[in-house]
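Feature request disguised as a bug report, sorry. It would help if multi-protein outputs had a clear separator. Right now it looks like this:
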Amino acid sequence: MPGTPRFLTLADVAETLNTSSAQVYALVRRGDLPAIKIGGRGQWRVEASALEEYIQQLYVDTKAFVAEHPFLEATDSAEL
């Protein structure tokens, strides 16, 4: 990935995921998204490759969720 920084700020990650920095911070603090804390002010950084792995895992998790929870049309659910 030429030109792409190795490490991203939480704001960068939030922009990529189209969510808030607070949500990304929660992902990091829960351990869902690997990150490092650097500097005296404790700034968080997420490695770009870790973010891509996280996104790929979300696709896998979502596919499994959809398989376990099939979508039922309104007419299908009325028959239940």
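(second protein starts here, but nothing in the output says so)
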Amino acid sequence: MGYAERNTWAQLIASVLGTAVYLVIVVPQLFTTPVGEIAWQWPMVWTIGAAVAASIALSILWGIVAGMRDPDEEHRSDQRDREIEWFGDRVGQAFLVIGALAALIMAMLEVEWFWIGNTLFVGFFLSAGLGGLARLRAYHEGFQ
């Protein structure tokens, strides 16, 4: 597994874990607390920050282990890696735009901030998750 693919895996793992932690914190509040009183802002900030930090740490640690196992492995991106990165970014950006448009419409309709913020959060998650999955598919199956 090359450098860029490892980074994609690290980002995907951190994104899924961060989103899961956020959902475990916030979703139970939906059953007991009015939406306007749910404490969602700081849990969102902390889980996004933790997911970014975890992605970086996992990528570094995974790279160290890979380098120890195979010191001759190439640690730079080649043209194929750049094309796959571009492809994954395009897929991910589509979901980011969809989430942003949905949040914009919600803001125009003066929907509760909780729903607007979480719509953006879902857009970020789908962007990272589906963009990462598209990259991994391209690594293993090519551009079909």
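Even a blank line would do. Unrelated, but nice: The mean pLDDT is 91.
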